[in-house]
Each structure stands twice: as structure tokens, then as C-alpha cells.
TrEMBL record:
The keyword Manganese belongs to this UniProt entry's keyword annotation: no
Protein name: Succinylglutamate desuccinylase/Aspartoacylase catalytic domain-containing protein
Gene3D superfamilies: Zn peptidases
Superkingdom of this protein's organism: Bacteria
A single GO molecular function term of this UniProt record: hydrolase activity, acting on ester bonds
Residue span(s) of domain Succinylglutamate desuccinylase/Aspartoacylase catalytic: 93-279
The organism's taxonomic lineage, starting at the top: Bacteria, Bacillati, Actinomycetota, Actinomycetes, Propionibacteriales
Names of the cofactor(s): Zn(2+)
Keyword list, A-Z: Hydrolase, Metal-binding, Zinc
Length: 375
């Protein structure tokens, strides 16, 4: 049993195997019908997971792209690979939840958490189905990069994609059609990756109507330390593709940085279980550690506080910190180590993102500050 999970009729010991845990094989074109390509897969070795989570997941996942990488196949083959879709179908009817992990290849937490959730769910006590693509972008995952090494596209900017488009656009189209469409909820598990730092949060589109209301309820149920409301949806995201299909959606971010923190991973897993419990799919789930702090604003990492000049960023704040308008978040130094620009908060609020890499160019995102709405 994974230490952070409580025993439940829907959570089972690791040693069991069950044909209701299914996986869709990697293919150059989507299977038709989808269920015809599902096959039984064995569960993770959770004892090994505790000792070495990353190695255990990669060893057990049997990902097409990872195997190709280790036997030396070319990058163009990796770029053409579609993600595996894994499914746990409960014995009883209920909602369908779609989970993405590893949309960006340098974000480890979502892949580990998604597979840990699948390893814990027991079809006997599960009501409904859980669909998972983790990693969602095989080419980026194999190269440990945010974008594809083949076409240099960011999967999180090209949804809903195109079946006839470039490799990353085909991945987006496949995920939109086979994972997101027909789901009752989408959970997209991200993290700040290697380029940024972010507090552990759940975000959603805080618009009007029942879709947004259901997304808000699920995001609150997730129980992350921060809850980020977005008044608008940026195009090209998995959440915008879900919105076009009428599917409520939330996403999760964590500290990232190429490091997986135990507390973060536990919160990802427990948060997903809390959402499944909220939807009536499992009998119980771990309680959140504390109430969430709610903030509001644009969460687009392509924007925010930007560098005015080239140089070296020296930070003077931390994510999750309350700041005042005009407060210094950092400075940009030149080649001689002299300050050429101060980086200041544009408003009162909470620091939700800080750039990790010190070398910056004019226009690079340095930080994002969101308004606190429950102060």
C-alpha cells in the first residue's frame, strides 16, 4: 500500500493484477474503435517505487518512447509516437475522469502521480472509469524538454491539435479525441518544470455556467495549498480543448525544478483521490492538510512580469509569499554584476511564479503575482 493512501474498497494492495487495468498500445494512428486496442497490464512494484520512484515508474511503464531512446532509435521515430492511454474501469457505473501527466517532458510529478493513482485503484470498489495518459507527450518526455525536440512545439499550446498536422499537433488531436472527449472531468497534472518555481496549486477557469461551476467544485475538492481562479482561458491549452467539448477541467502545478518533493507528490496523489471521492467514485480519500488560499488572475506563463533588459536575474522573493505593489521581487545584473533593472510587483498579491534560470533576455517571464481574493 502506498504510505499516503488510506485503505478503501477502491484502493488495493500492489501485488494484485486485474484485467480491468488496461492500456492502449502506442500507434502511429489511433485505434478504431478505441477499446479494441486496450490490453491488460501489470501493476507497479510499489516496494520499488518507495525506494526509487522515478526508476520504478519508467521500468514498469514500458513506454514506447523510453524503449526507443534506450535502444537508440532516431528522434523522428520518437516524434511520431502517440502516448499510451491507460484505463481503469470500475465494476460499477459512474463518471469518467481523464488525467494528463507529462504534457511537458521536464515535469515529472504528474507522470509519477498519475501512475501511482492507477496503481492504487481497485476496480471492485471503483464507480466509473479513470483514463490516463502519462506521459502525454512521448517525444518531450524522452528528451526531458518542455517542447518536442522534433518540431519544437509545446503540446500545451497546440490543443485541440490536428490529425494531419505536425507530430505534436497530432498528439494533441489524439488526446483530445481519445482521452478528453466524453469525459466528465479533466485533470491536467503539471509542475513548474525546470524553468520556473511555483507553489503547489490547483487552477481552473472561473467563468459562468455549469461547466465552470463543476470545475470550481473539483478544484476545491483537490485541496492544494493554493487555488487559482482564471477569468479567461488561453487558447491552445488542454483546458481550452476541454471547454470546447463541454468538459469541466482543472490543472495542477508544483515546484518542479527537476526535483520531486515527497510532500508535493503525496498532495498530487491525494488530491486526485479527493476529486474521485468528491465525484462519488471511491468511498474515502485523505483529508487536505489545510484550507486553500484563493487567488485570481491570468496564469499564462508566457506573460507576467517580464525582463526589460538582458542580464542575470537575482531573485529576492519566494513563491507563495504575499507582496505589495511596487515591492522588489529581484534585480537584473549586467556582466559586471551591477544592477541595471529592478523587478517589482505590479500589484498587491501572492507570488505564484518565479523564474529559476538566472540568465535572462528582454521579454522573458520573470514572475507572476496574482490577486488574493480571500484575504
Amino acid at each position: 500500500m502506498v504510505p499516503c493512501l488510506r485503505q478503501s474498497p477502491a484502493l488495493r494492495p500492489a501485488a494484485q493484477h486485474d484485467a480491468e487495468h488496461l492500456v492502449v498500445a502506442d500507434q502511429r494512428s489511433a485505434p478504431d474503435p478505441p477499446v479494441a486496442a486496450y490490453e491488460a497490464v501489470s501493476r507497479l512494484d510499489l516496494d520499488g517505487f518507495r525506494a526509487n520512484p522515478t526508476a520504478t515508474v519508467l521500468r514498469n511503464a514500458d513506454f514506447f518512447t523510453w524503449n526507443m531512446r534506450t535502444v537508440g532509435m532516431g528522434a523522428e521515430r520518437v516524434g511520431e509516437a502517440l502516448p499510451r492511454l491507460r484505463l481503469t474501469r470500475g465494476r460499477q457505473p459512474g463518471p469518467t475522469v481523464a488525467i494528463l501527466g507529462g504534457v511537458h517532458g521536464d515535469e515529472l510529478e504528474g507522470v509519477l502521480a498519475a501512475r501511482r493513482v492507477l496503481a492504487a485503484l481497485d476496480p471492485e470498489g471503483l464507480r466509473g472509469s479513470v483514463r490516463v495518459a502519462a506521459p502525454a507527450h512521448p517525444a518531450a518526455w524522452a528528451s526531458v524538454t518542455r517542447a518536442s525536440p522534433v518540431d519544437d512545439l509545446n503540446l500545451a499550446r497546440v490543443f485541440p491539435g490536428s490529425p494531419e498536422g505536425r507530430p505534436t499537433e497530432r498528439v494533441a488531436a489524439y488526446l483530445t479525441d481519445r482521452l478528453i472527449a466524453g469525459a466528465d472531468l479533466l485533470i491536467d497534472l503539471h509542475s513548474a518544470g525546470e524553468g520556473f518555481d511555483m507553489p503547489l496549486l490547483a487552477g481552473y477557469h472561473a467563468g459562468e455556467g455549469p461547466r465552470c461551476e463543476r470545475a470550481a467544485e473539483a478544484a476545491r475538492a483537490f485541496g492544494a495549498p493554493f487555488l487559482w481562479q482564471h477569468p479567461d482561458l488561453s487558447p491552445g491549452r488542454s483546458l481550452s480543448a476541454a471547454a470546447d467539448l463541454g468538459v469541466p477541467a482543472l490543472y495542477v502545478e508544483g515546484h518542479g525544478g527537476g526535483q520531486v518533493r515527497s510532500a508535493d507528490l503525496d498532495c498530487y496523489v491525494d488530491g486526485v483521490l479527493r476529486v474521485l471521492h468528491h465525484l462519488g467514485m471511491i468511498e474515502e480519500a485523505p483529508a487536505p492538510a489545510a484550507p486553500s488560499t484563493t487567488v485570481r488572475g491570468d496564469g499564462d506563463t508566457d506573460g507576467g512580469v517580464e525582463a526589460d533588459v538582458d542580464g542575470y536575474l537575482v531573485t529576492a522573493t519566494e513563491v507563495g509569499r504575499l507582496v505589495r505593489a511596487g515591492e522588489r521581487l529581484g534585480s537584473i545584473l549586467d556582466e559586471e554584476g551591477c544592477t541595471v533593472a529592478d523587478v517589482r510587483s505590479p500589484q498587491d498579491g501572492v507570488v505564484m511564479l518565479v523564474r529559476r534560470r538566472a540568465r535572462v533576455s528582454a521579454g522573458d517571464t520573470l514572475a507572476i503575482v496574482a490577486e488574493r481574493v480571500d484575504a
